[in-house]
Write a structure and sequence with these properties.
GO terms for molecular function: hydrolase activity. By secondary structure, this protein is an alpha/beta fold. The chain is 37% helix and 9% strand. The protein contains ten helices and seven strands. It is globular and about 50 Å long.
């Protein structure tokens, strides 16, 4: 004898299935779905995602301690294709078989370079708005569409800028209100990006108060930076039009907190030496919304650390930037899991 399950029970079972995912909501139907496989990856954001290749060598750098080519005994040649030192978007691109021109070890033709880097060092939320606008207006490539996967990770520099500017934002309430407003602006930008048909992975800001630089400012200052991070994330989450079918919200804040608390890594010292770190103390935002201070951070390599243990055990490469070997591998895996096991 055949019978149908009550509709209420079916809805409850569907909700349980959604709850085990990494996203705040679950999209699509409970039956068949077509697996989303992007033909392009477009990366917006700041230096936590950026690759730089000023010489157009196809063997560029990132800001999370670069690997070196072991065939060069002078330790002068970066090896961007060393997967153990990928930043998180390199890991995501690699999973889908997509290649950045900034890291193109096989010299693929430009028509086959379908991972497009727009992220830059020091970007704030308003700079990412410009990145998106510039990308859409660039006739050198197609505008965003339904076959594109977009990543957005920004907000860390916003927290730093707001924290340091006590003239424009003279009280804690002012600073918190501004952080929330910037998170809301980012949420509205993400909604606009989804209007193009593209799918978006957007990462939350981790607790900036957990960074070595924040802790050096004192416990109360670190707490303030954490509260500003939370305010930014709150503004972002409450503004996203997130039905689970277009937007994947990456809980990078939780992942970094777990690495800090339970990862058994060195969390107070920087792995890179003083000549290869960012100048955070003197960084200010320019008119385009980019904080300076990159200094020689992009040239930090496994050779510019005190020892191999530092390269693999230190969570931070400098006062605020995460180590590719440890953190970016974790964050990249989280992004891949979100994009595949809880599909758009």
């Amino acid at each position: 004898m055949k019978f149908a399950l009550p509709a209420r029970l079916l809805r409850a079972l569907a909700a349980v299935g959604c709850s085990v995912g990494l996203l705040a909501s679950c999209g699509g139907g409970t039956s068949h779905y077509d697996k989303f496989v992007p033909s392009r990856l477009i990366v917006f954001g700041d230096e936590y995602s950026a690759l730089v290749d000023p010489n157009n060598s196809g063997n560029g750098d990132h800001y999370a301690m670069n690997a070196l080519n072991s065939l060069d005994t002078t330790n002068a040649t970066v090896l961007c294709s060393d997967s153990s030192r990928y930043n998180w978007v390199q890991r995501l691109a690699s999973y889908y078989g997509l290649t950045f021109k900034e890291c193109n070890p096989n010299n693929l033709a430009s028509s086959r370079l379908n991972a497009l880097m727009q992220a830059r060092y020091g970007a704030t939320e308003r700079a990412v708005e410009a990145q998106f606008s510039d990308f859409q207006g660039d006739i050198g490539h197609d505008a965003l569409g339904s076959n594109d996967l977009v990543t957005v990770w920004v907000g860390m520099n916003d927290v730093i800028e707001i924290y340091k500017d006590s003239v424009t934002y003279s009280s804690t309430a002012d600073k918190t209100s501004e952080a929330t407003a910037r998170g809301e602006k980012l949420g509205r930008l993400i909604n606009t990006i989804t209007d193009t048909g593209a799918r978006v992975l957007v990462a939350q800001v981790f607790e900036m108060g957990a960074t070595p630089w924040a802790k050096q400012q004192g416990s109360s200052e670190a707490k303030l930076m954490t509260s500003l991070s939370d305010a930014f994330n709150q503004g972002l989450r409450t503004t996203l039009l997130n039905d689970g079918s277009k937007i994947g919200l990456l809980t990078f804040n939780d992942s970094v907190a777990n690495l800090v608390q339970y990862g058994n890594y060195e969390t107070t010292e920087a792995a890179c030496d003083d000549a290869h770190v960012a100048d955070i103390d003197n960084a200010t935002a320019d008119s385009d919304g980019y904080l300076g201070g990159a200094a020689s951070l992009s040239t930090c390599t496994t050779a510019t650390v005190p020892n191999d243990n530092a390269a693999k055990k230190d969570l931070w490469v400098d006062g605020i930037h995460l180590n590719a070997y440890i953190a970016h591998s974790t964050l990249g895996s989280l992004a891949i899991t979100r994009a595949t096991s809880n599909p758009f």
